[in-house]
Model the fold of this input.
Amino acid sequence: MPSYRRRFPAKLALSQEGRLLALAIVLIFVAISGIIQVRSVVASSSLRPHLPILIDGNSNFVVGSNGVTSGRGTVRDPYVIEGWSIASMGNQAAIEVEHTTAFFIIRNVETLSGSETLSGSVYLLNANDGSVLNSTLNGGEAVRIEGSQDVTVSRNSITNGQILVLDNDQGPLSTNLVIANNTLVNTTISIFSCTLACLQTPTMMKISSNVIMNQDNSISAIFVSAVGVTISDNLVSSTGTDIDVGGSQINVRDNILHTTSYNIRLSDANVTTLSGNVMTGFGIAIGSPQPPYDYPSYYDSQSIAANNLVNGSPVLYYSRCAGLNLSNANVGQLIIASCSMVQVSNITTTGKAYVGVLLAYVKQARLIDDHLNGNCDGLMVTESSDVNVSDSEISNNCGGITISRSPNFTLAHSVISGNGEGMFEDASTNTTVTGNLFASNSYTGARLGGGANVVVSQNHIQDNGGDGLIVDNLVNALIQGNWISGSGGAGILISAANGLNITANTLLYNHQGISLIASPFSGGGSVYNTIVYHNNFVYNLIDQADHIYGETLAWDNGYPSGGNFWSDYTGVDRCGGVSQDICPQPDGVGDTPYTGIIQITSGCCDRSPSPLVDHYPIMNPFGNVTQDTKPPLWPNGSNLALARVNSTSVSLRWSKANDDTWVSKYQIAENGTVIATVPGNILSYTLSGLSSGSSYVFKIDAGDPADRMSTDGPSNVITLRGNEQNPNPPTSSPSNLSPFRLAWWVQNPAWSYAVVATAAIGAGSILLARRRVIAARAKQLP
Done:
């Protein structure tokens, strides 16, 4: 027993205080280890350190010197450089071979810190008949080749680097290069050999059977700008472009490509052959320079076989054809270039590709009942004419439709929904957009810019995240009869335009109805020769209309045609005539101008009433909304909530009714009698002057612009108690509470934390002192 008592306190102290100390040490170690990155050093007994090696001319190949270990420089017995571990220094590559014609092999070497030199770990300059084999090359320009012929780079492991072929304009070109069977991690292959001298000179390069894993989405895993290159049987997994091709006569075949970006991009490429490639990602993208350097050959000179698969679906490519009729097919991508008299019907894109359907330099095409969903761009039309798209669905793409430099384009009776941007038109004339639904696109419903003679009519543009319709830098445009609602930005955003007629549109529940600003796309510009009339501005949230300082346009069409309907107009109609001074003679036009238009100066925030007014605001909504025959509907679960304010006042709050036009008003009935009417964007009301101790039945009904009223609106009952002065007395303020009450501590948490912390420190100190006393006594025991 005595021995037990002697051991127990010491053991207790060790198990608690010691464990706390140990835990602190572990936490400190973990924190430090999370900050400090330890580079592992692997010692290789088979490789010997060596200074950088420079071979300049055949005479420097001396066995036993300059790192040359064997050989005579012949095809059967090449010079060999092997077995070395070499760090490049400054601008000196680890191994540099220049101006040689003897056969040589660099193999089984390791290069270090290649990122510190501009010349590369292995640098071959005008060095012919060489090979780089079975080596581990790290960082920077792992292999750099200039003006060299008959070179092979094979079976190497390269990390965080680049294989670079960079020929200059003076030549000579690098030809007959083989880059094969290498394992490349965060390493790219880049060939820049397509200079003025190589436009007609095939380089006969081969890039094959490499495994490439690249996590830099800003660069391409394989980039080739040359003539006569074969890229085959590679396995590429990247976050950027897998293969980017420029130049001409490039053969890309039988590669397995996986990326979150483009699998194959043809950038200013001619006569490219694509076959047997299995692609997971955005598939094939074709790009070209801006005019006047954009040529049909960038699109129509390619050969793209149907055995190319994008996310499991075939790529269909047609070029230089006439009378193409394609229907009832599921495709990964459809590319049509330089064809005429084309009809594409009931096509479904399933590839989730860069572009579902691409039309380039196409004349007279009809797309009917097509389903272009889930791509980066659903439909792209460039440098084409007389293209008609109708009765189609273009949804859930990054961009729904892109039209560029393509006159006489028509989009009709189609659904464009759930895209990033519904439609983007640029520099195209005679564009017609009619009878479509643009709904729930994340940004803009439709944006048209840089063109002329544009008609946007009878579309429903609703619930888009940004602006409903953007009109930018257009000349002569008619925007008529559109229903634009629920836009996160302006219903119509206008900038840098000349000759706009905006009429008979309904702008409902947008952030702003119409906004005129300096062009965010063309770098500035004003609006000229523009008239806005016979539109319905209804319950737009921030303002019905605004414009930047200095804009000039007409907000009405004169008398008696009139201006616009404004849901917040408070004027009356008792008089008529040009000056509205013939009384009494109501004429459907307000007797006073509408002055709710806002002028914006100093950026976004200086807002004041505009000097521009609607001189003849119309009293009733324009168009057939007043011919509506159905009253508003109340959704299931609609309710009216009542709350007592005091013994003689009640607050009412109700859910929203729906209408096929809009709810223009709500009527409030008390015990069966209508006592108040509020605008349709108001969902609450407070009644006062009621009788204490009485019961009341309240009911809400909704009306529309045709004055059709619902009869089945929600109702509720409330009884006002006679002695109740304030049913919700305010909570006592902190100054009226005592520290001896729990509420005081809840409202003063800082004091609560201070007391708890003090108590914890005190308890810890007592516990520590007690442990020391126990330990001291234990030492005194026999």
Observations:
- Residues 673 and 698 are 9 Å apart (CA to CA).
- Residues 1-45, 724-736 have pLDDT under 50 and may be disordered.
- The two ends are 12 Å apart (CA to CA).
